[in-house]
C-alpha cells in the first residue's frame, strides 16, 4: 500500500473519525470560499487596476480570460491527479500555489505580470477545486454527502455575495493590490496545515494497480475546453467574429480527437463507466443548464435595473440580495429534502423554482413592484441552490471513490462552462429585448426537468 493510495481514501480500512470529517469539511468549505471570493473581488478591482497600470481594456479582460481558460482546461486532469496521488496533498499544493500567485499579483509591476500570474493562479485553482469535493467523497459515507455539499454551497454563496462589498472597501481604502493580498495568508496557512495533518490509515482492497495518467487525453481536453471557454468569454465584448468561429472549430476538432483517443487508450482520463452513466450525465447537464440560466438572468436583470430603471450598482446589489440570501439559507434545506425525497423530486422542485423566478423577472421594467422583483430573486436563489446541491451530490455520490476527483473536475467544469454560456447567450439575445431574452433563459432552466427525471427517485443523497 502506497502513501498516495492511502491519501486518496479509495477504500477505507477503518472508520474515519468525526474529528477528521469536521476537519475535511472545514478545508473543503474554506478552500472553495477562497476561490469564490477571489473571483468576485477581482471584478471590483479591475477599473482601478487598469488606471494604475495604464492597461488597455483587452489586457484587463485577459486578467479574467487567462484565469478562466487555465481553470477550465485543467479541472478534470487535476481531479485525476488527486485520484492518483491523494486529494489532501493536491488540495494543499493547490492552496499554496494559489496563495503564492496571489502574492505575486499583489506586487506585480505591470499588467503583463498580472496576466501571467493569473494564469498560474488558474492552474493552482484547478488543482484546488476538484480536491474540495474529492476529500468530501473520501471522508463521508455516500448517503451522508448531501449536507456537507450543502454547507459548501452556502459558503460559496456567502463569498459571492460578500465579494463585491469586501472588494469595494479594500479598493477604496488600500488599492487594488489589497484584493489579491487578502487571501495570501489564509491560503498559505491552510495549505501548510493540510500537509501537516495526516489522514487516518486506509486500505486499498481489490482495486488493482492505480491507472496511469492519460497525458494525451488531458492535453486534448485542455485545448478543447480552453478554446471553448475563451470563445464564450470574448463573445459579450466582441460578438461573433472570425476569431470566435476559429475557437469553436478548434474546440470541436480537439473534442472529436479526444473521443477517439479515449475509446482506444487503456487508461482513459474520462472512465467509460462514469461518462456512460445516465445519472451522472443528467446531473452534469442540470448544472450546466441551471448555471447558464441563473448567470444569464442576473446579467440581463443587472442591465435592466441600472440602465433602464436608473439604479446605482449598490442599490442593484441590494435589490438582488434576497436571491443570494435564499441560496445560502436554502442549500441546507435542500440537503434535508434530498435525503427525504430523493434526487429526482428535489431537482424537479428546484427546476420549477428557478424557471418561475426567471419568468417573474421577465416582467421587470418601469413600474415593476418591489414584491415582483423580490419574489423573482428569491425564487431564483432558492431554485439554483436546490439544483446545485442536488446535482453535485448525485455526481459525487454515483461514481466509484477512485474516480471522485474526475467527478469533482467534471462538476467544476460544468459550473465554469454554464455561466460563460449563459452570459454569452444573454448578450446575443438582448438586442431582441430583455423580456424575450429572459424568456429564452427560462426555457434553458426548464431543460433541467427532463434531465432531473433521469436522476434517482429514492432518497440516496
From TrEMBL:
PANTHER family: EXPORT PROTEIN, MAJOR FACILITATOR SUPERFAMILY MULTIDRUG TRANSPORTER MFSC. The chain crosses the membrane at residues 23-45, 60-78, 90-109, 149-172, 178-197, 217-233, 239-259, 280-305, 317-338, 345-365, 371-396, 435-453. SUPFAM superfamilies: MFS general substrate transporter (SSF103473). Pfam families: MFS_1. Residues 24-460 form the Major facilitator superfamily (MFS) profile domain. One of its GO terms (biological process) is response to antibiotic. Keywords: Antibiotic resistance, Membrane, Transmembrane, Transmembrane helix. It is a multi-pass membrane protein. GO terms for cellular component: plasma membrane. This is MFS transporter. It is found in: Cell membrane. It comes from the Bacteria. Its main location: membrane. One of its GO terms (molecular function) is transmembrane transporter activity.
Amino acid at each position: 500500500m502506497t502513501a498516495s493510495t492511502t491519501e486518496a481514501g479509495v477504500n477505507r480500512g477503518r472508520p474515519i473519525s468525526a474529528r477528521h470529517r469536521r476537519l475535511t469539511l472545514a478545508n473543503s468549505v474554506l478552500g472553495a470560499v477562497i476561490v469564490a471570493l477571489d473571483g468576485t473581488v477581482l471584478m471590483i478591482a479591475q477599473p482601478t487596476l487598469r488606471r494604475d497600470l495604464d492597461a488597455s481594456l483587452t489586457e484587463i479582460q485577459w486578467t479574467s480570460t487567462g484565469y478562466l481558460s487555465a481553470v477550465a482546461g485543467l479541472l478534470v486532469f487535476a481531479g485525476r491527479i488527486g485520484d492518483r496521488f491523494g486529494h489532501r496533498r493536491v488540495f494543499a499544493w493547490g492552496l499554496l500555489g494559489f496563495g503564492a500567485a496571489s502574492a505575486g499579483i499583489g506586487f506585480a509591476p505591470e499588467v503583463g505580470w498580472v496576466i501571467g500570474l493569473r494564469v498560474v493562479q488558474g492552474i493552482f485553482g484547478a488543482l484546488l477545486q476538484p480536491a474540495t469535493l474529492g476529500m468530501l467523497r473520501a471522508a463521508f459515507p455516500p448517503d451522508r454527502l448531501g449536507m456537507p455539499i450543502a454547507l459548501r454551497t452556502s459558503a460559496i454563496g456567502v463569498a459571492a455575495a460578500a465579494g463585491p462589498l469586501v472588494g469595494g472597501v479594500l479598493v477604496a481604502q488600500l488599492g487594488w493590490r489589497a484584493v489579491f493580498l487578502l487571501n495570501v495568508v489564509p491560503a498559505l496557512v491552510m495549505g501548510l496545515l493540510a500537509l501537516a495533518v495526516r489522514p487516518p490509515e486506509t486500505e486499498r482492497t481489490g482495486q488493482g494497480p492505480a491507472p496511469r495518467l492519460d497525458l494525451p487525453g488531458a492535453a486534448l481536453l485542455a485545448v478543447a475546453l480552453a478554446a471553448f471557454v475563451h470563445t464564450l468569454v470574448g463573445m459579450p465584448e466582441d460578438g461573433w467574429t472570425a476569431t470566435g468561429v476559429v475557437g469553436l472549430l478548434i474546440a470541436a476538432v480537439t473534442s472529436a480527437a479526444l473521443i477517439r483517443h479515449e475509446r482506444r487508450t487503456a487508461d482513459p482520463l474520462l472512465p467509460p463507466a462514469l461518462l456512460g452513466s445516465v445519472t451522472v450525465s443528467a446531473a452534469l447537464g442540470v448544472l450546466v443548464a441551471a448555471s447558464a440560466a441563473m448567470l444569464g438572468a442576473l446579467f440581463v436583470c443587472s442591465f435592466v435595473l441600472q440602465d433602464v430603471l436608473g439604479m446605482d450598482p449598490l442599490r442593484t446589489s441590494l435589490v438582488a440580495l434576497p436571491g443570494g440570501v435564499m441560496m445560502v439559507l436554502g442549500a441546507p434545506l435542500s440537503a434535508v429534502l434530498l435525503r427525504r425525497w430523493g434526487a429526482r423530486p428535489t431537482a424537479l422542485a428546484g427546476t420549477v423554482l428557478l424557471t418561475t423566478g426567471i419568468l417573474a423577472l421577465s416582467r421587470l421594467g418601469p413600474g415593476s413592484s418591489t414584491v415582483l422583483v423580490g419574489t423573482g430573486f428569491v425564487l431564483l436563489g432558492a431554485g439554483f441552490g436546490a439544483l446545485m446541491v442536488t446535482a453535485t451530490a448525485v455526481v459525487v455520490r454515483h461514481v466509484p471513490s477512485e474516480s471522485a476527483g474526475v467527478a469533482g473536475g467534471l462538476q467544476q467544469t460544468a459550473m465554469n462552462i454554464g455561466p460563460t454560456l449563459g452570459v454569452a447567450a444573454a448578450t446575443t439575445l438582448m438586442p431582441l429585448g430583455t423580456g424575450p431574452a429572459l424568456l429564452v433563459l427560462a426555457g434553458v432552466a426548464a431543460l433541467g426537468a427532463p434531465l432531473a427525471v433521469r436522476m434517482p427517485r429514492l432518497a440516496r443523497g
